[in-house]
Amino acid sequence: MISRVGSKLILLMALLFLISFCALPVFANIHETIEEKQKELEGVEQRREDEKSALQQRLNREAALKEELLAIENRQIDLRRELERLVGEIAVVEDEIAQAEKELAEAEEQLGYQEDLLKMRLRAIQQHGVVTYLEVLFEAESFSDFLTRLHNLSLIASNDLRLIEEIQAIKRMIEEWRDELQEKRDHLVSMRQQVVDREAELERAAEERVIVLAELEQEISLNLKAIQDLEREAQELDNMIRRLIAEASQFSGISGSLQYPIEAPTWVSSGYGWRRDPFSGAQAWHGGIDIAPHHGAANYILAAEAGKVIFSGWNGGYGNCIMIDHGGGTVTLYAHMSSLLVQAGDIVARGQRIARAGTTGYSTGVHLHFEVREYEKPAIRSFPSGAADHRYNPSGYF
Question: Which residues contact 54 (CB under 8 A, 6 or more apart)?
């Protein structure tokens, strides 16, 4: 006969067995989900990098298009100036052509008048015959008068011919001048048309580039939105993974005081909160405490609590940095070490040596920068002041 206490003990053991048995697939499912979400996060980050790469290419193309548009605009300005110059030269040449036409008309008028006189004389000679000239000669009163009359007749005929030749020469010169001016005008008109055609080509090129630029700016806008969406998705996935890790973690967070994170002898060189920045001299927020070993020794850094190393490596201003997840969304951070003894994924015990003190990153001397962060809180917290939660008060750490 089993006693009542014995039956309760058996029932409790059965419940514990059942809980343990059921928990195994639950944790297995959580780990599978974590792996799936991590792969999903990697895919999102890869897509984000692809979008960033595409964005950079489009930004480069945008800059090139704007430079091309500026070059086209400058070329259009030069062409308009060239067109104005050609129009001015054409106007000058057309005025010269008009002047040449006027002078040519006057020369033709003089030539016509002179030719009419010659024709009149020739008609008189034809009507009266050579006898008329002979009569003029024979009417001479003396031989001297005869020679004089003959000389005068010769002078008149020679003068008529000379004038005609001179006028014809002037006419030919004016015609050549006019033809040269006309050729010059035709050349200038052709050049003006070439400038007009080139300007039209540039206008079409500019319009095409403006259209491409507008499309490119639209694509850039879509790129930026895609990057923002992917960053938000990545952040959501990262938060989800952190929650899942916290749920699946074998660590339950920090419940008591922490292990002092560096081997003695040491002293606290800078506290938590507002302080004067050692580099700029301005007031700056200090999100942890700095603990310096005596005489700058490379003392060992110790894990403040058992947990899983989630980061071990160079971390910008932190220099060589380690982050340990203790479960419950609580992480401790150790910075500026000279060397690291653990790597991401390692499980560390409370008080385990994880690094050696140093002065890497933004540091003015050998020390440990130590922080406690709560990722499940709305904001990252490190040693909040006040006694509301003494676990995160420096005086309540160790």
Answer: 223
What tens digit of pLDDT does each residue of 175-213 get?
Answer: 787 788 788 778 878 888 888 888 888 888 889 889 988
- Dist CA 370 CA 4 (whole Å): 54
> What Å distances lie between residue 223 and 45, 47, 81, 233, 238, CA to CA?
14, 11, 41, 15, 22
Within a domain: 257: no
Encoded tokens for 292 = 């310096």
CA dihedral 155, 160, 165, 170 (to 10 degrees): 120
The rounded distance, in Å, linking the Cα atoms of 382 and 385 is 9
**CB contact set of 100 (below 8 Å; sequence gap of 6+):** 174, 177, 178, 181
Identify whether residues 113 and 219 lie together within a single domain.
yes
What is the three-class DSSP state of 296? helix
The count of other CB atoms within 10 Å of the CB of residue 139 is 10
- Domain final residue, candidates 199, 220, 248: 248
End-to-end CA distance of the chain: 53
Query: Quick one: how far is CA 22 from the chain centroid?
Result: 57
Domain membership flag for residue 230: yes
Q: Is residue 84 part of a domain?
A: yes
Range of the domain at 27: 1-248
Instruction: Give the span between the Cα atoms of 367 and 269, in whole angstroms.
Output: 8
Each residue of 327-340: pLDDT tens digit?
877 889 999 999 99
Query: Which residue from 141, 392, 98, 69 is spatially nearest to 254, judged by alpha carbons?
Result: 392
Pull the structure tokens for residue 98: 């008009």
* Same-domain status, 212 and 309: no
The distance of Cα 310 from the centroid of its chain, to the nearest Å, equals 37
Q: What is the mean pLDDT of residues 267-273?
A: 87
Compute the chain's Rg from CA coordinates: 54
